[in-house]
Amino acid sequence: MKTAVCYYSRHHGNTLQVLQAMARADAMDLIDVTARQMVRLEDYDCIGFASGVYFGKFH
Ligand SMILES: Cc1cc2nc3c(=O)[nH]c(=O)nc-3n(C[C@H](O)[C@H](O)[C@H](O)COP(=O)(O)O)c2cc1C
């Protein structure tokens, strides 16, 4: 299964550190939503979204 996680990790890079540990255990592409890049999400079987939580909401 091809997996991607779109992430925003602004404050301490905590979200990215967690995702990098996950990616070492199970192959996945990490997509920085602040970087300009062409990504074809339809090519993935599983798509996740990740960020820190600020005042009860995803960043
Ligand atoms: C101003 C501020 C508000 C926050 N609010 C919450 C919150 O409501 N709930 C929570 O669980 N963590 C909260 N946090 C902690 C962040 O979600 C946590 O540090 C997260 O790992 C940051 O992710 P990042 O380094 O990838 O941006 C808050 C942190 C800051 C600085």
| Class derived from helix and strand content | alpha/beta
**What is the H/E order?**
EHEEEE
Provide mean pLDDT, rounded: 96
Q: Please give the order of strands in the largest beta sheet.
A: 2-1-3
Binned, the helix content reads: 10-25%
Low-confidence stretches: none
What percentage of amino acids are in beta strands?
Answer: 25-35%
Distance between the termini: 27 Å
Question: How many strands appear in the DSSP assignment?
Answer: 5
Radius of gyration (CA) equals: 12 Å
Q: Total number of helical segments? A: 1
- Mass-distribution shape: globular
User: What bound compounds does this protein have?
Assistant: flavin mononucleotide
Largest sheet: 3 strands, parallel
Q: What can be said about this structure in brief?
A:
The protein has 59 residues and is of the alpha/beta class. It contains 1 helix and 5 strands.
